[in-house]
Amino acid sequence: xxxxxxxxxxxxxxxxxxxxxxxxxxxxxxxxxxxxxxxxxxxxxxxxxxxxxxxxxxxxxxxxxxxxxxxxxxxxxxxxxxxxxxxxxxxxxxxxxxxxxxxxxxxxxxxxxxxxxxxxxxxxxxxxxxxxxxxxxxxxxxxxxxxxxxxxxxxxxxxxxxxxxxxxxxxxxxxxxxxxxxxxxxxxxxxxxxxxxxxxxxxxxxxxxxxxxxxxxxxxxxxxxxxxxxxxxxxxxxxxxxxxxxxxxxxxxxxxxxxxxxxxxxxxxxxxxxxxxxxxxxxxxxxxxxxxxxxxxxxxxxxxxxxxxxxxxxxxxxxxxxxxxxxxxxxxxxxxxxxxxxxxxxxxxxxxxxxxxxxxxxxxxxxxxxxxxxxxxxxxxxxxxxxxxxxxxxxxxxxxxxxxxxxxxxxxxxxxxxxxxxxxxxxxxxxxxxxxxxxxxxxxxxxxxxxxxxxxxxxxxxxxxxxxxxxxx
Length: 473
Description:
Number of helices: 16
Low-confidence stretches: 454-473
Radius of gyration: 24 Å
Helix content: 25-40%
Shape: globular
Largest sheet: 8 strands, parallel, barrel
Mean pLDDT: 86
Number of strands: 16
Distance between the termini: 67 Å
Strand content: 15-25%
């Protein structure tokens, strides 16, 4: 089926995002579920699979946030281990991809390769790895002495981590597992070996997991800076876009796809997926009223103060949320007032100036400013209006799909699956049945060609060669 422009109709990629305790979720409502009970994860995953979503996405938090040196009282305690949750969900789903957010800074390549490949085998080829990095000493204190990794090194380490992980996934070919019971042979001699020598890692041995059902599990990433965009365009199968407004999203889409082509890749093999939320109503007016109520519930006076503290980098509890923005300037050289998962602002004075200009022009209070400036973009309207908006966004190359979350955990996604998904299926923009058995199949991604594995002996010879050449001179 074609679009009105005559182009082939794109199939919308959908990921389901399960939010934690933060200002995007209405965790305080009586109908909101637990953030750690397996029933919460199971309900969301089963609902997503019923809606023929491509994957379930689990974010990760490696350190509890702090406010003025104390545990942040709106942060989440008890987020379970990602691999444990996703392996459990593999047993109660059949087609849904399982995307794990795992940090490349604080994990070793062999461990990452083994864990992700194991999930891929347990799920029959449905694993994905969302590669994230960290450089701050606050998070790193949980993992290493001093905790610090220079900002300039985080992508260097991440790129080499992915390189090593992929070489481990390529250590075995499918034909290397002989399994000859009569001869007493399980695998071909010499297969499964790997070796890598580089600035970050010097590793070698034999990989303990057979080749993945997908060849390589799917790799996801997010990149905003020029360096981040290049890294994601060169290494990822899909990118989480931070842009929810169409014009910005289309510019990002075109930029990153062009970068992928510059790396010699087929741009169609890189999927762009912004995050999104939704609010539905029987009429547009009802949906807008509900969306306004959701925003006001999400951003209480205290939440507004705390979000601005991440920009001002100072205590703002003395300021009335219903009054004007703080008249003090941000603390530029002071230690982080809120540490951990915080809003990132490279230029605090410029951000403060922009917020003040918006508040003055619109007559907004402190809380209203936060509601208008920092509420995640959402699709609001009747089911038909939301289906139209989602489809138009994708068909006009704002993205290839969305990672969708709800303000209500875990039952919020049900409304979208029940009322919007059928409309997308009717117009041919969303599958009615899964196309294949693996996540790569369903995303329309090719199986990676297996690279020739490097043996430990070859790596050792390669490492000796420069030294021997130097000796000859």
